[in-house]
């Protein structure tokens, strides 16, 4: 993947919160030095990732994964999954993340139609760093399910020897959906050896009908 505007922008937006969380959550003694190393690792990791189709929104997920992986490669202390889960949630809980979480537009008729099209297109994707999934509509426009049969994060983290930390990223799904007053649930995850990631969403706002 080219180190273009999107990877540069995501680093610029989140590097500060990732550094602050290093100090506040992990008590790293030299967070600025860790992030300096992580930036080099971030570019190196992304250089080995296949280019995404121009309309594949999952590219954001893989870039975020690369950022966390770069930090994990740059710290000297080994951390438990629970510690990295707390770190990642703190690092990602920023005003801009909350803005995007609450302005996704997915809980509208147009948003649900777009989700259906994305699911259909995903079946043709050959990029192992992206995701394949099926879409199941809910009773109302504020509910739906996405059943994932492949996961780009699992693929990348396995390549990097960091598979044990994938659940730390998976856990953020709950926090991110809570930002948008959405109840998120699932029974299985690919990261834990399940047959799929069965993600179910139920948004509390019943006014999104357009």
Fraction of residues in H or I helices: 40-55%
CATH topology: Muramoyl-pentapeptide Carboxypeptidase, domain 2
Q: Please identify the top-level CATH class.
A: Alpha Beta
Number of helices: 9
How much beta, percentage-wise? 5-15%
How widely separated are the two ends?
36 Å
Nearest-integer average pLDDT: 95
Strand order of the largest sheet: 1-2-4-3
Uncertain segments of ≥5 residues (pLDDT<50)?
206-210
Which sequence of SSEs, written as H and E, runs from N to C?
A: HHHHHHEEHHHEE
Describe the structure.
With 210 residues, the protein is of the alpha+beta class. It has one domain (5-203): Muramoyl-pentapeptide Carboxypeptidase, domain 2 (2-Layer Sandwich). The protein is 51% helix and 12% strand. The chain contains 9 helices and 4 strands, in the order H-H-H-H-H-H-E-E-H-H-H-E-E. It has helices spanning 5-24, 31-47, 59-74, 81-92, 95-102, 109-122, 152-159, 166-170, 172-179; strands at residues 132-137, 143-150, 182-185, 197-203. Strands 1-2-4-3 form a 4-stranded antiparallel sheet. Helix 1 (5-24) runs antiparallel to helix 2 (31-47), helix 1 (5-24) packs across helix 3 (59-74) and helix 3 runs parallel beside helix 7. It is globular, with a radius of gyration of 17 Å.
Task: Write a concise synopsis of the structure shown.
The chain has 210 residues and is an alpha+beta fold. It contains nine helices and four strands, in the order H-H-H-H-H-H-E-E-H-H-H-E-E.
């Amino acid at each position: 993947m080219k180190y273009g505007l999107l990877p540069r922008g995501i680093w610029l937006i989140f590097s500060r919160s990732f550094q602050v969380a290093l100090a506040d959550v992990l008590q790293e003694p030299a967070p600025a030095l860790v992030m300096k190393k992580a930036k080099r690792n971030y570019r190196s990791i992304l250089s080995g990732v296949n280019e995404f189709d121009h309309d594949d929104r999952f590219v954001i997920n893989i870039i975020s994964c690369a950022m966390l992986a770069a930090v994990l490669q740059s710290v000297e202390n080994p951390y438990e999954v629970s510690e990295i889960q707390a770190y990642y949630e703190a690092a990602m809980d920023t005003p801009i993340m909350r803005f995007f979480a609450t302005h996704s537009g997915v809980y509208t008729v147009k948003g649900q139609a777009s989700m259906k099209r994305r699911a259909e297109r995903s079946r043709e994707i050959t990029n192992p760093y992206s995701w394949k999934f099926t879409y199941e509509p809910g009773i109302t426009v504020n509910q739906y399910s996405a059943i994932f049969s492949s996961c780009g994060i699992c693929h990348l983290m396995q390549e990097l020897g960091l598979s044990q930390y994938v659940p730390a990223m998976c856990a953020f799904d709950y926090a991110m959906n809570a930002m948008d007053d959405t109840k998120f649930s699932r029974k299985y995850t690919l990261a834990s050896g399940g047959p799929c990631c069965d993600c179910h969403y139920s948004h509390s706002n019943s006014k999104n009908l357009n």
